[in-house]
Design goal:
90% helix, 0% strand, 169 residues
């Protein structure tokens, strides 16, 4: 009887979904997806960084505002990349924490209705903490990158001006 139920249950799903379920249950699949997402993220951010650099190089203004604008953009790109990296680490850790809390609550004999209520509270608390940490870390990386790139761009611009002046003499 149980075999008949299992066979009818598995046959109710299309074969492509069974293959997808089997693939997604493998750790290798998640590792490959992780690498694919990071490859796309790094490639697109690298192209964005190159376009910011080429815009800054084509700008011949002696004012510090183009350097400030480029620095803010650099900081934004690196902040988003660091938040994406932290998110990739935080999501599995958050899920493990959530599961651990639910299992411990179950072992302590909580009734099902209380367990559902506690799970909702735990989910809200864990998610809000993870988002706060993510934003703080991403903002910190963005600020550090923006300040460093502003100093580097200003020093490069002033160094290029001195080299041009020496060449004219």
């Amino acid at each position: 009887m149980a075999d008949r139920d299992a066979s009818s249950e598995s046959s109710s799903f299309p074969t492509w979904s069974l293959i997808l379920f089997k693939l997604l249950s493998k750790r290798r699949t998640w590792a490959c997806l992780f690498l694919l997402v990071y490859t796309v993220l790094i490639s697109s951010s690298w192209n964005l960084l190159l376009s910011i650099r080429s815009w800054y190089a084509s700008n011949n203004s002696s004012s510090p505002f183009p350097a400030l604008y480029a620095s803010v953009l650099y900081g934004l790109v690196f902040g988003l990349i660091s938040m994406g990296a932290a998110l990739a680490v935080a999501v599995p850790a958050t899920v493990v924490t959530w599961i651990t809390v639910l299992v411990l609550l179950t072992f302590f004999g909580k009734p099902r209705s209380a367990l559902v209520e506690e799970a909702r509270k735990a989910t809200k608390d864990i998610a809000s903490l993870a988002i706060r940490v993510l934003l703080k870390e991403g903002n910190l990386a963005a600020i550090v990158c923006a300040v460093a790139s502003f100093v580097a761009l200003i020093l490069k611009r002033s160094g290029a001006g001195e080299n041009n002046g020496d060449g004219d003499l």
